[in-house]
Structure formats: structure tokens, C-alpha cells
UniProtKB/TrEMBL annotation:
It comes from the Bacteria. Signal peptide: none annotated. SUPFAM superfamilies: Nitrogenase accessory factor-like (SSF53146). InterPro entries: Di-Nase_FeMo-co_biosynth, DiNase_FeMo-co_biosyn_sf, MTH1175_dom. It comes from candidate division WOR-3 bacterium JGI_Cruoil_03_51_56. This is Dinitrogenase iron-molybdenum cofactor biosynthesis domain-containing protein. Residues 9-96 form the Dinitrogenase iron-molybdenum cofactor biosynthesis domain. CDD domains: MTH1175. It holds the Pfam family Nitro_FeMo-Co.
Length: 110
């Protein structure tokens, strides 16, 4: 399974669309087997969910996302795990192990 983490300086970004880059990870058998980083091509409504879907992403991990983005992610078959903070590597390891703690979205717009 391919997972994307909204990333700012090695940390999970508070907003999926305003991050500097995305850390992509392949997870197999509850382990992170491969990671890479891709740049954020820009925050335009509807673009990022399709961009990540084209990369094969099935889950995005971030601090928050607006309701429109969440709906588009759902249309693309991508699960959104929000309210996540801390180092990207830790978030990926926790997700792979099935113990990632989520919280409320940090996104403050509709």
C-alpha cells in the first residue's frame, strides 16, 4: 500500500495542501519498505488529491484538510488520516503497525 505524508522539514504538516513536499511510503506486511519524497506541485482546489491518486496513494496522513479536499480524496479512493503530528518517520511506522493516533483536523477553513 502506498501512503503519502504531508511533510514540512521532516515533520507531519498541519495542512496537507500547504506542505513543502510529500513523503511517499510503500507499506507491506506491517513494515515501511520504501520511502521517497516528491514536491508539492501547488495548492489548487482539487489538484492534489488527483496528483496523489496518480502516484498510487491510498492513504494520506496530515494535520488537517478541508471538507472539500476530504470529499475529493474520498472520490479518488484515498483515506485521510488527520490530526497527526510529529516526525514523519514515526507517523509512518505507527501507521504500518496499526497504532497511528489521529485527532481533530487542524484545517481552519471550509
Amino acid at each position: 500500500m502506498k501512503v503519502a505524508v504531508a511533510t514540512d522539514s521532516g515533520q507531519v504538516s498541519a495542512h496537507f495542501g500547504r506542505c513543502a513536499e510529500y513523503t511517499l511510503a510503500d507499506i507491506e506486511n506491517a513494515k515501511v519498505v520504501k520511502t521517497g519524497v516528491i514536491p508539492n506541485p501547488g495548492h489548487e482546489p482539487g489538484v492534489l488529491p488527483r496528483y496523489l491518486a496518480e502516484k498510487g496513494v491510498k492513504v494520506i496522513i496530515c494535520g488537517g484538510a478541508g471538507p472539500k479536499a476530504q470529499a475529493i480524496f474520498a472520490q479518488e479512493g484515498i483515506q485521510v488520516r488527520m490530526g497527526v503530528f510529529g516526525p514523519v518517520d514515526a507517523a509512518l511506522e505507527q501507521f504500518a503497525a496499526g497504532i497511528l493516533t489521529q485527532g481533530e483536523s487542524t484545517c481552519d477553513h471550509d
